[in-house]
C-alpha cells in the first residue's frame, strides 16, 4: 500500500464510510470532503479493495427484463440530447461509440481476408471488383464477417448475409450509417429475414470512403428515437476493394 | 454457488470497463449480462425490497456507463469498483430515506437467508485465492466483531441496528468498529 497520510480520526471516518454506517448527512459531508482530498479517496479505495471479497457471499438474483429495457431507453435519450448539443466531456464517448477506429483498423484486413476465403469456398464469383465500394459488416466481439453491403448506385445497395444471421424475437435488426463528418447516424431501415435484400436510401448518394455502417437490435418497427438504441450486432466501414 | 458466477471468474471486468469508457455498447451489454444479477443481489441484501433493488440496479448500470471513464485499472480491480458503486448507491438510498428498508417488510426479509453465518462466509472467502488474506485477517478477529463487520458491509446496517440485533450496547459496537479498523489496516497491508 502506498503511504496514506491521514490522522486516526480521518481513517475512522473513511472506515465508517466504507462500512456504510454513517447517517445520511455525515455520508454526504464525507463525500464532499473526499472530493477535495486525494488522501481520503486513497484510504477509501484501499479499504474497499480489501473488504470487497466479503461480497462473494452474496448470491446473484435474477433481474427482470424491464431493467435492461429502461437502461437502453435512458442511454438512447442521453445520446439523442448529445447528438443535438454534444457536451465537450462526452465527445469522446460519442466518437468511440460511432467511429470505433480501433475496431475497424484491427478488423478491416482480417474481415476482408475472411470474406475472400468465404466467397472462394462458397464458389461465388461475385466478389467485389477492384474499386467497387463495399462494406463487410463484422461482429464487434470476434470480427466474424456477417454480411456484405455493396453499393449499386446512388439510390441503393445490396445487403447479403455471409453467415447464419440471428433471428431475434420481439425485435428487429436495423441498418445505420454515419460518415465521419455527420453529427449523428441515419437509419437505412429495418432488415427482413431474406439472405439477400436491396436497401434503397438516398443516403447512398453521398457515401464516403471509410463511412461507418452498423446493424443494431431494435424494438419492433425500428428504433423509437431515430438513433441506435440496442446492441450492435455487426459493424464495418466502407472500402473500395483495393 | 449459483450458476450466475460461472462466467464472472474469468471475465475481464477492467477491460470491459475501459471499453465502456470508450462508449462501446456491446461491452456494456456484456457487462450487464455477466454482472447484473450479482449487483441486484448486493443491492437487495442492503435494501431488502425487490422492486427497489431493481430500480437501483438500473441506476447503478447507468452510473457505470456514465462514470466508466473514471475507473483506474492501475488502482483498483474492475469488479471491486463495480460492487463499490452498487453498494454505495444502495447505502445512499437507504440512508436518505432515514429508515432501514430491510426492516419495513418482515416477509421480504424472511425470504433472504441470513448471511451472518461465520462458516459460510469464511468458506466463500477461502474459495478464492485473492481473498485468503482477508479471510485470514477476519479469522483473527473475535466472532462478535467479525459479525458486526458483515452486518455493516454486506447488509448495510447502522451501528444502532447492529446494536439492537446483537443485543450489544451501542458504545461497544462502535468500539468494535474502531478496533477492527486498526487491526485490519495492519493485517491487510
From TrEMBL, chain A:
Every Anti-sigma K factor RskA C-terminal domain range: 109-232
Keyword Isomerase attached: no
Cited InterPro entries: Anti-sigma-K/W_factor (IPR051474), RskA_C (IPR018764)
Any Pfam family hit: RskA_C
Entry keyword annotation includes Membrane: yes
GO biological process, one term: regulation of translation
Domain of life: Bacteria
Gene Ontology cellular component terms for the protein in this record: plasma membrane
Protein name: Anti-sigma K factor RskA C-terminal domain-containing protein
From TrEMBL, chain B:
Alphabetical list of SUPFAM superfamilies matching this protein: Sigma2 domain of RNA polymerase sigma factors, Sigma3 and sigma4 domains of RNA polymerase sigma factors
UniProt KW Ribonucleoprotein keyword: no
Annotated source species: Marinobacter adhaerens (strain DSM 23420 / HP15)
RNA polymerase sigma-70 region domain ranges (all copies): 31-98
Gene3D superfamilies in the record: 1.10.1740.10, Winged helix-like DNA-binding domain superfamily/Winged helix DNA-binding domain
Entry's Gene Ontology BP terms: DNA-templated transcription initiation
Domain of life: Bacteria
GO MF entry, a single one: DNA binding
Family the entry assigns: Belongs to the sigma-70 factor family. ECF subfamily.
Domain RNA polymerase sigma factor 70 region 4 type: 133-184
Keywords: Plasmid, Sigma factor, Transcription, Transcription regulation
Record Pfam families: Sigma70_r2, Sigma70_r4_2
Identification of the protein by name: RNA polymerase sigma factor
Amino acid at each position: 500500500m502506498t503511504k496514506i497520510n491521514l490522522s486516526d480520526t480521518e481513517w475512522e471516518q473513511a472506515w465508517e464510510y466504507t462500512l456504510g454506517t454513517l447517517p445520511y448527512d455525515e455520508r454526504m459531508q464525507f463525500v464532499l470532503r473526499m472530493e477535495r482530498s486525494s488522501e481520503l479517496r486513497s484510504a477509501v479505495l484501499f479499504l474497499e479493495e480489501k473488504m470487497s471479497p466479503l461480497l462473494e457471499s452474496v448470491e446473484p438474483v435474477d433481474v427482470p427484463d424491464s431493467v435492461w429495457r429502461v437502461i437502453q431507453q435512458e442511454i438512447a435519450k442521453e445520446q439523442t440530447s448529445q447528438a443535438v448539443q454534444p457536451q465537450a466531456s462526452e465527445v469522446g464517448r460519442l466518437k468511440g461509440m460511432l467511429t470505433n477506429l480501433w475496431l475497424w483498423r484491427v478488423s478491416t484486413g482480417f474481415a476482408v481476408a475472411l470474406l475472400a476465403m468465404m466467397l472462394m469456398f462458397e464458389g461465388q464469383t461475385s466478389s467485389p471488383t477492384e474499386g467497387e465500394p463495399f462494406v463487410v459488416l463484422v461482429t464487434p466481439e470476434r470480427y466474424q464477417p456477417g454480411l456484405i453491403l455493396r453499393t449499386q448506385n446512388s439510390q441503393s445497395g445490396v445487403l447479403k448475409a455471409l453467415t447464419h444471421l440471428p433471428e431475434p424475437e420481439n425485435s428487429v435488426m436495423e441498418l445505420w450509417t454515419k460518415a465521419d463528418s455527420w453529427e449523428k447516424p441515419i437509419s437505412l431501415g429495418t432488415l427482413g429475414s431474406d439472405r439477400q435484400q436491396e436497401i434503397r436510401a438516398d443516403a447512398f448518394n453521398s457515401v464516403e470512403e471509410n463511412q461507418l455502417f452498423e446493424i443494431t437490435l431494435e424494438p419492433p418497427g425500428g428504433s423509437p428515437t431515430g438513433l441506435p438504441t440496442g446492441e450492435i450486432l455487426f459493424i464495418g466501414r466502407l472500402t473500395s476493394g483495393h | 454457488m449459483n450458476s450466475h458466477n460461472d462466467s464472472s471468474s474469468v471475465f475481464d471486468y477492467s477491460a470491459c470497463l475501459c471499453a465502456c469508457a470508450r462508449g462501446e455498447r456491446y461491452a456494456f451489454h456484456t457487462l450487464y449480462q455477466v454482472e447484473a444479477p450479482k449487483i441486484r443481489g448486493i443491492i437487495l441484501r442492503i435494501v431488502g425490497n425487490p422492486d427497489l433493488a431493481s430500480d437501483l440496479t438500473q441506476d447503478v448500470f447507468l452510473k457505470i456507463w456514465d462514470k466508466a471513464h473514471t475507473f483506474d485499472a492501475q488502482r483498483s480491480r474492475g469488479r471491486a469498483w463495480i460492487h463499490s458503486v452498487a453498494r454505495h448507491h444502495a447505502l445512499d438510498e437507504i440512508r436518505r430515506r432515514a429508515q432501514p428498508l430491510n426492516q419495513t417488510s418482515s416477509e421480504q426479509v424472511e425470504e433472504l437467508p441470513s448471511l451472518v453465518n461465520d462458516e459460510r462466509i469464511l468458506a466463500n472467502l477461502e474459495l478464492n485465492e485473492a481473498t485468503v488474506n482477508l479471510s485470514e485477517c477476519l479469522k483473527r478477529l473475535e466472532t462478535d466483531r467479525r459479525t458486526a463487520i458483515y452486518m455493516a458491509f454486506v447488509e448495510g446496517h447502522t451501528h444502532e441496528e447492529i446494536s439492537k440485533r446483537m443485543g450489544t450496547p451501542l458504545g461497544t459496537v462502535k468500539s468494535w468498529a474502531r478496533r477492527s479498523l486498526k487491526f485490519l489496516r495492519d493485517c491487510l497491508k
